[in-house]
Design a protein that fits this description.
CATH class: Alpha Beta
Shape: globular
Radius of gyration: 16 Å
CATH topology: Rossmann fold
Number of helices: 6
Oligomer: single chain
Order of helices and strands: EHEHHEHEHEH
Structural class: alpha/beta
Largest sheet: 5 strands, parallel
Strand order of the largest sheet: 2-1-3-4-5
Number of domains: 1
Number of strands: 5
Distance between the termini: 10 Å
Length: about 150
Amino acid sequence: MRLTVYLAGQIHDDWRDQLRQQAEERGIAVDFVGPQDEHDLSDGIGEQILGEQESARWRDELASQVNNLRTRILMQRADAVVAQFGEKFRQWNAAMDAGIAIALGKPLIVVRDPSLHHALKEISQRAQMTVDRPQQVLDALEYVLR
């Protein structure tokens, strides 16, 4: 059996690539999907599809529509969702994706530093599991597949 796992959260560092590499090294049968992590493409996709916009606001609105379409399709197809929260960037996307996963009834694993416990307590209470490090996600997925 293989699992498809949607990796929600910020796109400004390589946490997804690290998780993919570690899963491959450990031989865990999982396919990871997620938001477009090429930042310029993610920000400009609305204009690429629908043409240049008159303001940054409308450019953002169109990009958001296309990115939300991607998220919805990939998340609905996923077996589980991992939402990683960090301190460096605001985490609106991770919180939104966690809420969508909960609404869709998708199993959710929250990854957050223990210092963020209070801020994320409601999301953690709705998740199936909350961990401190991404490597613990792999431990859990490996157990599910065992």
